[in-house]
Write a structure and sequence with these properties.
12 strands; 6-stranded antiparallel β-sheet; alpha+beta; 4-stranded mixed β-sheet
């Protein structure tokens, strides 16, 4: 990144006046001496930053040094990048630098701020124009809502330059005390920051790489709900833990599991949190923020949005090929039931059983909005795996019976048939001692009533000798 900085400006002469000492300085007059002073400081600041860039390859460190340079050069009390999503009309701080002792950024700025009250900023982004407000009081009469945002964030004056595309947003200096009418330096630094942000996203995307075989094109999306939620694309895998927003993941899960129509924000909010009484405007803002957070994370592994905002609400992107493990499970079970070939039927059941890694959306499995589906697929899995174990035993493939029985017990410890087939398969593989151990383990796992039923199964069984097991 180093060599391009000084070339961003056309310099008409060599300036040798030294850089002033750091700290807030009086704004220079707008005359020739003031311009020469600006050029001198600009040259020195860019040279210092260039030297740093040549010795650093960490995009976040580069960004922080660039923000520090911008804040010092313009004599501001805060410098930061604001990422903007025009589809959702929201903005949020990404990186920032505060020269003060106490940083209150996360207390002052909401997790997601609305652009609804900031038409000036939307237009500036569309037109790639800088924003310079030397006194925010001049905005008060024209747009009191915008002024209220400035007042809440302790903004007296501001200078902001846009950067595009992907990510798009602004580099902002709050309360600059110098050079507010000269934004060329800030434009150069915005370019440096944008490249650092792109590089950081590329690094984060690389960490998520490793796409499943099911995903072949950039528009193929595979979503796993059994167990922990995962979203897989050609570029990588995004887990629920990665974007670490329980409410965002619930909103996205609700939309994906109900793909038939678009869902208004108020419907989503009431479906997920019916006990919370909020105004429609608040519900809309919150849902918009949750979807925005997810979109930020999803953009690391896909060039297309998974969730679209429409006049009727939020919906899945119809231009993507989306397949969930829940839908795959249903298709495989239906195909196994229709199959006339026993070998094919067993193979289809194996594939379906392997898809089930736990209850749907494990982190919310006991919540009212999803519990019916959780219970439905828990019952379907138990029925399917028991059918598979019986079919494998009929072919005398006891190694496979043992394998699938162990997995079934891990997922559903109370499955009596899985315990039965684990004991029976171990017995048939020639180890009565191990079969006895499995029976003892079942006794520790099951309730007294359940274990009594298991014993009854084994006494009546033709697959094992209860006399040998009970010795």
């Amino acid at each position: 990144m180093g060599g391009f900085l000084r070339n961003l400006f056309q310099k008409t002469e060599k300036i040798t006046e030294p850089l002033q000492s750091q700290g807030k300085k009086e704004r220079p007059p707008n005359d020739d001496d003031g311009y020469l002073h600006y050029c001198t400081e600009l040259e020195q600041a860019l040279r210092d930053l260039e030297t740093y860039l040549l010795t650093c390859d960490d995009p976040k460190e580069i960004a922080m040094q660039t923000l520090r340079t911008a804040c010092t050069f313009y004599g501001g009390d805060w410098a930061g990048t604001l990422e903007v999503d025009l589809d959702f009309d929201v903005w949020a701080p990404a990186w920032w630098y505060n020269p003060g002792i106490q940083d209150r950024t996360t207390q002052l700025i909401l997790e997601f701020e609305s652009l609804h009250f900031m038409p000036r900023w939307i237009n500036a982004l569309h037109q790639c124009k800088n924003i310079v407000i030397s006194d925010v009081n001049t905005v008060k009469a024209e747009n009191p809502d915008e002024y209220a945002v400035y007042e809440r964030l302790f903004v007296q004056s501001i200078i902001a330059v846009p950067f595009i595309p992907s990510p798009m947003g602004f580099l902002v200096i709050r309360n600059p005390s110098r050079y507010i009418d000269r934004s060329s330096m800030l434009s150069a630094l915005a370019y440096v920051l944008h490249r650092a942000m792109v590089q950081q996203k590329a690094i984060e995307s690389a960490k998520l790489a490793s796409a499943p075989d099911l995903v072949q094109s950039s528009k193929d999306i595979a979503i796993n709900f059994f167990g922990d939620m995962e979203i897989c694309t050609k570029k990588g895998i995004l887990s629920e833990r990665f974007f670490n927003s329980p409410k965002s993941s619930r909103v996205i899960t609700y939309i994906i599991l109900n793909p038939q129509t678009a869902h208004p924000p108020l419907e989503i909010y009431h479906a997920l949190w019916p006990d919370e009484c909020v105004e429609p405007e608040v519900a809309g803002r919150n849902i918009r923020g949750y979807v925005y957070r997810f979109r930020q994370a999803f953009s690391l592994i896909c060039d297309y949005p998974l969730i679209e905002s429409t006049p009727n609400g939020y919906r899945l992107n119809p231009n993507l090929n989306i397949i969930t493990d829940v839908r795959q499970f249903d298709r495989l079970v239906d195909a196994a039931r229709r199959s006339s070939s026993e070998v094919q039927k067993i193979n289809l059941m194996k594939k379906a059983v392997r898809l089930y890694r736990g209850p749907i959306f494990r982190g919310a499995q006991d919540e009212h909005w999803i519990i019916s589906q959780v219970n439905l697929y828990r019952l379907r899995y138990v029925s399917l795996v028991n059918d598979l174990l019986r079919a494998l035993a009929e072919t005398q493939d006891y190694t496979c019976v043992q394998h699938y029985a162990l997995n079934a017990i891990d997922l559903m410890p109370g499955n009596l048939k899985a315990h039965y087939w684990l004991v029976a398969s171990t017995y048939h593989l020639g180890s009565i001692a191990l079969a006895k151990n499995e029976l003892l383990r079942a006794k520790e796992i099951l309730t007294c009533e359940e274990y009594s039923i298991l014993e009854d199964y084994l006494r009546k069984s033709e697959d094992v000798s209860w006399e040998k097991l009970s010795k």
